[in-house]
Specification:
The protein is an alpha/beta fold. It has helices at about 5-25, 25-45, 60-70, 80-90, 130-140, 155-165, 165-170, 195-200, 220-225, 230-240, 240-260, and strands at about 50-55, 75-80, 95-100, 115-120, 140-150, 200-215, 265-280. It is about 45% helix and about 20% strand. Strands 3-2-1-4-5-7-6 form a 7-stranded mixed sheet, with helices on both faces. Strand 2 (about 75-80), helix 4 (about 80-90) and strand 3 form a beta-alpha-beta unit.
Length: about 280
């Protein structure tokens, strides 16, 4: 069992995704959709294949895969009911269905699927090791796994400065929140993710990276963007009333000014590592 695992942590993550579900697809100008598209291209689903999309969220990956494998089937699983509700209303393909299920406790028989996809999900699972073991179990011999993970080491100076201030912000407002260990922040590194997959019984094939970014116009827009970046910033920012939210935005303005170079202020990167592998 992953030492980070706890019911409290799982509840915290699921609550985050339940809350952001309505604007998940639109966040950062549709960033999640672009990552999903790149992952599906890397996975190369083929006609008649059966695919399991683990941590499907709003079904971005599943809906892209469905027409490619038709008349094969796609099943998307997630623990966020709000995400699944949106996934079921998006798209019109009849060969895709969405089910509430944990990545670590798949109900499917061994060697059932040709392809498993995990789009931006691995670092959020209660037990990533067990989730990968389950993916390995339900894949047919030679079956494929495609994974995308956020690469945090390519954050901008502005992002690093902001995220470093989250722990002091929580202490200042007497907020104690469950957190995964810092090791998960390295899942998306190009020298780490292949090792994780290899250790789970997969032979890594292709690895590619995707880097996009932009700038916000001011502290308010920046804070709104960062609130969607994960459970910790979302919970902290949403817990602040108008007065403290104003104080936070003033601190963000000061932090951005401290960077010195105006070009660095309010600049962000969204960077991902995407890997395709086969079951050994």
């Amino acid at each position: 069992m992953d030492p980070d695992y706890s019911d409290e942590m799982v509840d915290h993550v699921v609550d985050f995704f339940d809350r952001v579900a309505p604007f998940y697809d639109a966040w950062a100008g549709g960033q999640h959709g672009r990552v999903a598209s790149r992952l599906v291209d890397l996975a190369a689903p083929a006609k008649n294949e059966h695919v399991l999309d683990v941590g499907t969220g709003t079904g971005l990956v599943a809906h892209l895969v469905a027409p490619r494998v038709n008349p094969g089937m796609v099943i998307g699983i997630d623990l966020s009911e709000n995400m699944l509700r949106i996934a079921r209303t998006n798209g019109k393909d009849k060969n895709v269905q969405f089910v509430g299920m944990a990545a670590e406790r798949l109900v499917f028989r061994p060697e059932t699927f040709d392809l498993v996809t995990m789009g931006e999900a691995l670092a959020y699972f209660a037990d990533p090791t067990e989730a990968l073991a389950e993916a390995h179990r339900i894949l047919r011999p030679g079956g494929r796994l495609a994974v995308s993970c956020l690469r945090r080491s390519l954050n901008t100076r502005a992002q690093d400065l902001f995220f470093q201030g989250l722990a002091p912000l929580a202490r200042r407002h007497y907020l104690s929140l469950p957190r995964y260990s810092s090791e998960r922040a390295r899942f998306g590194e190009p020298d780490v993710l292949p090792q994780i997959l290899s250790g789970a019984g997969f032979e890594v094939g292709r690895l590619t990276e995707m880097v996009t970014g932009g700038r916000t116009s001011d502290a308010r827009e920046w804070t709104e963007l960062m609130a969607g970046a994960g459970p910790l910033p979302y919970t902290l920012i949403r817990a602040l009333g108008p007065r403290y939210r104003g104080e936070l935005e003033a601190e963000v303005e000061a932090a951005m000014a401290s960077l010195g170079d105006p070009d660095d202020a309010f600049r962000y990167h969204h960077s991902y590592v995407l890997v395709a592998a086969r079951k050994r």
